[in-house]
Amino acid sequence: xPVGLFRVCLLVITAIVNHPLFFPKxxxxxxxxxxxxxxxxKEREESLRLEQLRLEQEIADQEATQKALEKAAVVVEESKExxxxxxxxxALSMVIFLLIELWRQDFQEGNWQDIGGExxxxxxxxxxxxxxxxxxxxxxxxxYEKRILGTTGDMARMREMVEGFAxxxxxxxxxxxxxxxxxxxxDCMGVGSMYENWRVRKPFVCxxxxxxxxxxxxxxxxxxxxxxDSFPPDEQGYGTIKVCRADEDVTGCICDKTKLGxxxxxxxxxxxxxxxxxxxxxxxxxxxxxxxxxxxxxxxWFQIAVTKAWxxxxxxxxxxxxxxxxxxxxxxxxxxxxxxxxxFNLTPVVQYENSDVYFISHFPRSSLAxxxxxxxxxxxxxxxxxxxFIQLVSKTLPANACHxxxxxxxxxxxxxxxxxxxxxxxxxxHLKTVLLHLLQARPSQDWAPEKLExxxxxxxxxxxxxxxxxxxxxxxIGNGKVPAELGFxxxxxxxxxxxxxxxxxxxxxxxxxMVDTFHEMLRNMSxxxxxxxxxxxxxxxxxxxxx
Length: 547
Fold this sequence. Notes:
Distance between the termini: 99 Å
Order of helices and strands: HHHHEEHEEEHHHEEEEEHHHHHHHH
Shape: elongated
Structural class: alpha+beta
Number of strands: 10
Radius of gyration: 44 Å
């Protein structure tokens, strides 16, 4: 603006200075042609007016440009403020997302299953079962006393008899085996429902596992799905067992893991020591042309060894011993002359390092290992730790706690329902897993004997939720809250949780059968319980309810 005014003033001064009246010609006379001079002055005036208009237009344009720049600056400032606000909301959203993700991971690691729920909210189980309720405490107590306790009194005597005979049989097995070439068999251990005191269905069957080891100078190198190497999703829960010489360093050289080629030689291992005759590895029960232990070969060897051992000691006993099931190689049956029989399972296992986790060759009477990837893949069993956990928790519970009673009642009802509608994918192991989760989640006082009805409802609601979500996580794998007193291997605590219902996600027919069986069991629960319950006087029942 000041520049424009200066230019206008300069133009006016120049016009005045150059005016002919101020600077006449040399002769000092006034021009004679006045009209011509006036005309020139008008033209000059017109040119000055046009120049003034042009300058005013430039000044207006400059002012408009200045205003536009000021407006643009305001818009930029507002956009910066808006961007700051947007960045703030973006950052806040990211923080919320991270918090949700951290909560989800913590929920998955520590609280896989939503126990939740108060006792008052448990009268009805699920939206599909409105009106379906459990019998009251008096009916449940009478049912348990008559049907459960009345059939489990001779379990202790049966366990004692089976363990004594199994020890004698294994001692004879060691005597018939070649100590320099055959596997070394250790003492057997009892696992499962018979040794956790919750089996209710007859016939009673004792499950015994027998650890074995290779002869010197060989040893087992165990590898699990969570040991670092990649395993497909369908092989989670499995592992492989490699037979190696005790002085062989399988982790220090890569010649055993990669193909070096015909023109390359390992400087640490000679060709003689790195290759073994195929017959030698087959004698060590390995899969053909590999160093991996073959479960089928192990069971064949074990059957032959047990047969030889029985032939050596059969004269001492007044009964017969036979293999009872073709599809379960370790299933044995004792037949007395009176016609009675006792069944038990003797299954060879391999110890994982120095823990009580074992690789098991076959699961007797179970569909858990129905789809084993191959005979060199062994399923891991945590049965010893499960038994120890129940024993450890039982010490902190009230006298005559109801935790075992809940599992026994559910196992009985499920077995009865399967006898009516046929077997399903749901097993007693799934029921026990539900109990283990609840034992860890519930305080000790909640397992008092008078709370049997509430805890039974908890187990049913928990199982119903797991069936709906198709998720029931293994109790030990991925559980960072396992009591330190158990000495449980840390590698399995840090592993990803193992979903026991994963096989049913793709097999919809089995999943549907499992859900239908559970629903039918709920509908028939009262009828099944009342069928085995003695009559309870109405006054006695009302008195219990008032308490």
